[in-house]
Amino acid sequence: MKYFKINGGQKLSGKITVNGSKNATVAIFAAAMINKGKTTLKNVPQIEEVNRWIEVLESIGVKVEREEKTVTLTPPAKIQIENINKESAQKTRSAIMLIASLVTKSKEYFIPQAGGCKLGERTVRPHLFAIEKFGIKIDTQDCGFKVDSSGFKPAKKVVLYESGDTVTESALIVAAQSPEKTIIKMATANYMVQDVCFFLEKLGIEIKGIGTSTLEVIGKKEINEDVVYEISEDPIEAMFFISTAIVTKSNLIIERCPIEFLELELLKLEKMGQQYKILKEYYAKNEKTNLVDLEIIPSKLIALEDKLHGLPFPGINMDNLPFFVPIASLAQGRTLIHDWAFENRAIYFQDLNRLGAKISLLDAHRVYVEGPIEFKSAEMMSPPALRPAAIILVAMLGAPGESILKDVYSINRGYENLEARLKSIGADIELGDDEGDL
């Protein structure tokens, strides 16, 4: 059981660089399975979620070569889906995208039930509805999904049952394997979806409407390309460092922030009184995504009169919403935060009360956050969900005294080498391996 020991209340300074996107990486892993050629991915974050995906891919016969942030995937002549590492697949919800990846590779196959964060009932029906439009039959069982793709056929139009990121990616991956035009409606335009589109274009797939809610895809019957693609930076990691700088009242420069996917978050913060500067603007190495270097300046905050809630892009990112909880705790007044997308996630926000926050749960989706407060140190167990665990860490970094955060696997799923990177900007944090060391 890994844990963080934090001596909080330290001022941070200097520069921190945003890593490649977790959510884009795992989606592109799935998309790469439609390619018979060699796929080389750069700027891959070295995180537990990626480790689980690599274990899954190796178990089905994919040759994986890994050198720091570069991962090369060489598919076998035949995917050995019957050998899939079920334990690893069940630890990541995104493994469900393998249903879409294999529709032209195997006539019948079984994908284990999805796992990932414990956030209540997260239905997979929208994925299944989208894939079934292509003539695929999916039998949902207690332990997974039995797929019959023998009837695979083009789908002229797919209206997504839910405007979700992973759902859009699944539809894109199937459509890329159909040589006729597919129109996908109610698509999201979020960062990871755009990254998948840019990758598919490298494979020779024609896509119109990237960045909109309607995508037109002309796929290929056979894809055999040796490609190199650099994954763009993660706006959710950028928001982690933004909130950390604000909560620790620090002047911090955050480099390589994907600004298009942070603009509304920054506007809300600006209206709360938060000061920041954009120091530099440039393209990511994929030559598509706009990046900036962002300076966060210590500021006095006032609560917004309007509620804060997540929406599909271009709204506040669903995964960025939790970071407003520790920020709102420092703002004068009361903030209403509405996390409508997940049944249980708002319940975890109350965990910050152990650290001195004043958070009232109104129902399973809504909380009031009263401020300003001063965070205090505590010893706690991480919740089994990435972003709720991350905001506890943010609050502990701002809380004077020694805090312990136990069982941090959920954080390591999404953030690479976090303790060393935080130490590089002045945080007093250690990662321990054994609970007995405490």
Could you characterize the architecture of this molecule?
The protein is an alpha+beta fold and 438 residues long. The chain folds into two domains: 3-19 and 233-437, UDP-n-acetylglucosamine1-carboxyvinyl-transferase, Chain, CATH 3.65.10.10; 22-221, Enolpyruvate transferase domain (UDP-n-acetylglucosamine1-carboxyvinyl-transferase, Chain). Helix content is 26%, strand content 26%. It has 14 helices and 23 strands. The protein has a four-stranded mixed sheet. α8 runs parallel beside α12. It starts with a strand and ends in a 6-residue tail after the last strand. Residues 116-122 have low confidence and may be disordered.
How would you describe this structure in keywords?
26% helix; 438 residues; UDP-n-acetylglucosamine1-carboxyvinyl-transferase, Chain; alpha+beta; 2 domains
Concise structural overview:
This protein has two domains: 222 residues, UDP-n-acetylglucosamine1-carboxyvinyl-transferase, Chain; 200 residues, Enolpyruvate transferase domain (UDP-n-acetylglucosamine1-carboxyvinyl-transferase, Chain).
